[in-house]
Amino acid sequence: MSKPEVPLARAPNYGPHYTPNRMDAPDQTSPTNETVIEPHSGWIGVNWPELVRYRELLSFLVWRDIKVKYKQAVLGVAWSVIVPLISLCVYGGIANVFAFQEYLSAPRPPILLWMFAGLVPWLFLQRAISDGGMSLINNQQLMTKIYLPRLYLPMAALGNAMVDMLINFGLLGVVALYYFLKGGWTPTWQIVFVVPLMLLLYVAAMGLSFFLSAATVLYRDLRFLIPFFVQFGLWLSAVPYPLSKFDREGLHGWKMLYAINPLTGIIAGFRSAITGQPWEWLHLTSSIVLCSGLLVFGLFYFKRVERLFADIA
Amino acid sequence: MNEAPTCVSSSLIPPPSSLVERMPNPVIEVSNLSKAYHIGLVERASSSFKESLTAILRAPGKRLKQLSTDFDDSPDTFWALKDVNFQIEQGETVGIIGRNGAGKSTVLKVLSRITEPTSGRAIMRGRVSSLLEVGTGFHPDLSGRDNIYLNGAILGMSRQEIRRKFDAIVDFSEIGQFLDTQVKRYSSGMYVRLAFSVAAHLDPQIMIVDEVLAVGDAAFQKKCLGKMNDVVKQEGRTILFVSHSMDAIAGLCKSALLFQKGRVSEKVPVDEGIRMYLEQNIGSDENILAKKPRTQHTARDPIFTDLKVFHGGRETNIIPSGGEVEFAITLSGTENDAGSLTCGLALLNERGQRVVLFHTLYHSDLSFRGAKQQTLRCKVDHLPLTAGRYHLELICADGFKELERVERAGTLEVIFADVLGTGKLPNYNQSNLVLPATWKEE
Asked: How far is B155 from chain A (nearest CA, A)?
């Protein structure tokens, strides 16, 4: 039996060095998007083009959180100012009682300004840990009922925290201006380092919230642990007291131990840039290395467990 | 159907090459798709303090096991989908039907990329938008206006696109003056209307819709179906539609995939699919008439013990509109009753309204003596009902004294048949009876 002669559909001739790939295979219906759904295992890369395509969603999510947050509060947005001022009063009070100003190098900056310079980045990190960490389980519906780049959920929580942080920095500017006019503080050129430090701060926040949010979906235990992270993190990152305290007491080993915590370097960095205290180079370098590592790890951990979200959440 | 039939493009002979060249690839191509879950078997309830303590201590290990992606044939593994194959061409509307837990929603979740398959692959060609729930991402504290933007963005629309369609969305949803009210103050109907309107104005090439029309009032449901129909007809979109409402499936879809325990049938024409689904349900419907709830005026054993429905000599409760049907009713334990018993069989629609009554007295002037066990047969030559589900009610009386009434004795599924010769019938909600008539212009 002879088969009927069927002329085969032929691939276009692209020349001798052409290797066909998926996108321009001749049987492609249209050059539009073809999605292949397959099981993945191991580490999965980030789909950057998709993040770009959905970028408006991120701004909508941030906008939603901000709009909802202050909607039914009597004082509304005023809370973004009141909360940092209250913590400034508390920790500024502590610093005053224990005379932490004594430990700072001359010219000694006003203790309140010094405290606030560390408190503002810390408040942001605190939000990254708590809001970022809970961002996925707080948006369960978005994980189980629709597809969207889930990385945007912790990022939206950060975006929201960032708006508050910018308000806080404005407040810090007001406090600084007060001391500048009153005398007691003059900015040095080092204040420009605030910009790269903000970048470092954001890198740390992303790393933390990616990792914590993904891990919280898998292990709800973290819901109970996160409040403790926040409380201990404050002390372990040397926010309410100066690192130089250890120098004065001769506990250099203890001080070096703080370099393990990447957040210490950031907080100390902000204080150095704003109040002109000597830089803690060891802590800052360790912070840069560890925060970058944390971001990469957080991102990959998130992508790795993302495929389980809908089944578990 | 104990073997999962695989869906192969129907012929074994290769189609002519000219066709191969012109015919585009299917927009959805699913091959050997499987999805397993750890179901987390319930352990025996601990009876002592020591046992419950060890159970708590072992819990972390159990949790870790549940998170693993290794699946085997252990009883802890549940295959929600097993080797599912199908292909859907552009412009097709396919209904996905099956009982609860058959894998319908899971397949939609996999195709929407919400969850990953355990094995196999699916290829989607075109922009996909899925609607597994109305109002995903709606925030109760935001106004209707804000939620349109938010939900639109979540469904994948750009800000510009939403702005362009905003008025159409608001019009379609009929929420009018409540646009700037927080949605938590909406009635549930308004909420659903708004949510569906946003989704209905998406422009995907492939639309995946789960049972979302079950909510909302009938008029709005109809409007939604109409909108979806327009979308298919005018724009050649592809729709995958899950519903338990066979009316909705029949109204929207041309073909159907029947899911059963994670496996899928071949793609069949929608009427065929609905028939298969309904028959599948009957097999499992092991409700014994004698055990069904009934009204009795004196305490006694049940009178009605069996009800069988025949069509074309075969026991089935699916009959075509205008078709012939025969009921066999078994009564028992009436030997002590006076001796002028009557029996009635009524058909009720889903709203509980009686559509028709067949009664021994009216139809055959028959009253009978009680007996230990007896069977009555009632034959109807033409049952001119519109397509849909009807409930059967049985009544037994002695003279004027009602002895027993079984309100939900069984169901009858009437499926479409061209009784009027026009290819159309009024629908279930418009009319339950189909009687021949002629209309003329004067």
From this structure: 8
